[in-house]
Amino acid sequence: MLKSHVRFYSATGKRLVLVADDEPVNRELLTYILQGDFDLLTASNGREVLQLVREHAERLSLVLLDLMMPELDGFRVLESMGAEGLLPRLPVIVITSEKAAEVRSLRLGASDFITKPFELPEVILARVQRTIELSEDRDILQGTERDSLTGLFNKEFFYRYAAQYDRVHDGKAMDAYVLDINHFHLVNEINGKAYGDLVLRRIAEQLRRVVAETGCMAARREGDRFMVYAPHGCLDGETLLAGVMQQLDDINSARIRIRMGIYPEADRSVSVEERFDRAKAASDSLRDNYTRFISIYDRSAYEQQMFAEQLIDEMDTALLHRQFEVWFQPKYDIRGESPRLTSAEALVRWRHPERGMISPGRFIPLFEKNGLIQKLDHYVWREAAAHCARWKAAYGVDIPVSVNVSRIDIFDPDLVPKLLKIVSDAGLTTDDLLLEITESAYAEDSGQIIQAVAALRERGFRIEMDDFGSGYSSLNMLAELPLDILKLDMRFVRALEKDGSGKALRMLELMTDIARFLQVPVIAEGVETKDQLDIMKRLGVDTVQGYYFSKPLPAEEFETLLSS
């Protein structure tokens, strides 16, 4: 008996078999042998065979095909079935008395042979049963290894076959390609899932054509992502992408854009999956680029991306184990005869147990981009408040500390109560914690920022506009901004030394004039030389910070500075 887990196409629960032989005696004999186990169709010539196969293609389980038939012989029937794509699913057992015909039949796609004169009935029945069983098992396997929508390999089998190819072709250089549809979720939402599925099938159709022409492998990785594995130099990326886009020409009303990442001569020392991860990283680098469509994997860029992912993964652990350290850069009031330490800016450093000190330029932009900066901000606020309270208790001095308030913090409806609780828990007042908000944050959503800042000022907090002059503010917006201090962008201070035309100096003069008009004090950061300090004094700047007085200091060293 055949296995019970496979489908039955016949209403009687029997599989359908086509017996094709021009000799009535042979048809009757085969019918007698098979009729107890199968439903049968019969044909006496090649044209009739093709007609019945086409008509019953979805129900047929096997064809018994005589090679010597009128109108179309068995060879031409096999050729036609192969050209129409019928042979991969429908097995054919050839009936022949000529031994020499077996090789040609196999090459045309036949599965097995029954020789004339016929063998014992039990042998014929067993051959038919076994051939159908093997074919159906193969269909089941293909159902698990193939993506149901596109017919391409799924990623698990694709990786397995690619690794097998590597073993057989040891030392052969291979290229990994990844194709992505840009913003495919929007294509589905706007045009419907049926349209999205049609796009995926069209892309797969082109990739199958490329596979047939070149012998490479293709898969649908997931969603809208496809993979191609090809011998190095076998494919040209631009030609491959152009072929895929051409396949979409008549349905591309949604203006679909496909980006491609290529990892040429992929490193055999890493897994197949990692090779395609690298090609994907190259593709992802084009996500918001509308002028380039193909990107070649760059090892340094990939390593930076992996490093960024590791930092994101390790952030919570770093917070838990207090790997983040809050440092302080002193601010000096320069309006009198002698500079006087009056406040400090809190800056964060990451002392990693394995990587050592990680520059804030590496992790702060990363955390700002993905929203993790809010966790870090809250940590810094608490640490800065605790240090400020300790200095007040130990030395009896009030040294307000400026802390950064990120754009994502501004949209937190509980921002005011959170800050008030931190101040209260440390035994401080709102005068002890200065809040820095960048000029660019004001410009991004001025209405929300102004509302949030107004609420903070009502509760007693003082607001510093950081990086003032970086080019975002309009004069109209400046008139509406609730703020207490302007902090000049350090790039203007640094530009003084290279400024032969005097433009940087005139810009600084303009910004200090604006501050005086708004009746707010001015802080200049990045002051590193005596000449820069003298210019700041001449311009009427109130407070400066920078390496001329002190670099950022760990909390212990800043405390030593206070005590002295």
CATH overall fold name of the largest domain: TIM Barrel
Content-based structural category: alpha/beta
Global mean pLDDT:
87
CATH architecture of the largest domain: Alpha-Beta Barrel
Q: Work out the radius of gyration.
A: 38 Å
For the termini, the CA-CA separation is 96 Å
Shape: elongated
Number of domains: 3
Could you tell me the number of beta strands? Answer: 21
Largest sheet: 8 strands, mixed, barrel
Major beta sheet, strand line-up: 12-13-15-16-17-18-19-20
Low-confidence stretches: 3-11
Could you explain how this protein is built, in words?
By secondary structure, the chain is α/β, with parallel strands linked by helices. It has three domains: 15-145, Rossmann fold; 153-297, Alpha-Beta Plaits, CATH 3.30.70; 322-563, Alpha-Beta Barrel (TIM Barrel), CATH 3.20.20. 48% of the residues lie in helices and 21% in strands. The strands form three sheets. It has an eight-stranded mixed beta barrel with strand order 12-13-15-16-17-18-19-20. A six-stranded mixed β-sheet has the order 6-8-9-7-10-11, sandwiched between helices. Strands 2-1-3-4-5 form a five-stranded parallel β-sheet, with helices on both faces. α3 links the parallel β3 and β4 (92-96). α2 packs parallel to α3. Residues 3-11 have low confidence and may be disordered.
